[in-house]
Amino acid sequence: MEISYLAAFLGGALMIFAPCAAMLLPAFFAYAFTSRKTLLARTLVFALGVLIVLVPLGAFAGSLGALIRSYSQTVTLVAGLLIMALGIIQMFAISIPTPRWASSLMTPKSAGNQEDGAVAPTNLAVFLLGIGYAIAGVGCSGPILGAVLSFATLGGSTLTGALLMATFAIGMVLPVGLLALLWELFNLSEKSWLKPKPAKLLGRWTTRMNIISGTIFVILGALLVFFGGQAGLPSILTATQQVELESKIINSVAGVPGWLFFAFAAVLIALIAITVKERRNRGK
C-alpha dihedral over 146, 246, 223, 217, to 10 degrees? Predict the structure, then answer.
């Protein structure tokens, strides 16, 4: 089946209606209570987790992709358990000694800035959530993802398969990106009620935001462990409705060339960047 880049992108965006998307919004709010700069960084980390699973599926569906699928349950289980553990660490603001090479995966407590409490590997938890969301998405996807995988499996271009899957993955994280953008545009990080306030949990000092975000991490980790990120969860569309909608999209946008899609995306990203920059300049 022929598949366009626009169809792949829209297919990823439509995942918001699937059962696996039940963990998407909680994943955002698990790390949203922070500075604007950190919010952007963590959104990119979440997207990286999705990409690192899906791109190999598109590029090497018959080899590495098959290996990823065969161990998906194990990866989801381990990721879920780690996320639960990291959530508990976040709740209690526990400091964890880490080697220098791993510091980029940690959320440091810089001097004079204790918005995240003690050192807690929030970025690692966000990355694992991205991996879990991607694996869950493969399990509850429709014909668009199937078309991308078929393209790679049946001897299509490795590069094209990777680009198609990357486009699909970007569509999957689009809701999170839009939320981060709105958070940025309305300066929600500066609201007083979102500022970290000291709190005591089982005799240990932490912050209220640490408790909230850590609790969400624990819940999402349990969701991955017990449901694989999708089974038994509600969805906006039924499986039949999702297939029908994605099939219509495939037929409707089949003639849209890839260069036109990427050109439009570049213009849109540029406009968003200009808007955000202007708002920042007005706020100074």
Answer: 110
Label residue 228 left, alpha or beta by phi (over 0 means left) and psi (-120 to 50 means alpha). left
| Tens digits of residue pLDDT in 77-118 | 999 999 999 999 888 888 766 555 455 544 444 333 444 443
Provide φ and ψ at 10, rounded to 5°: -65, -35
pTM, full prediction: 0.83
pLDDT band at 119 (very low <50, low <70, confident <90, very high): very low
CA-to-CA dists, residue 192 to 170, 195, 257, angstroms: 32, 5, 47
Q: Catalogue the long-range contacts made by 152-160 (C-beta closer than 8 Å, 24 or more residues apart).
A: 152/57, 152/58, 152/59, 152/60, 152/61, 152/62, 152/65, 153/61, 153/62, 153/65, 158/59, 158/60, 159/59
Q: Which token pair is 184?
A: 């940025």
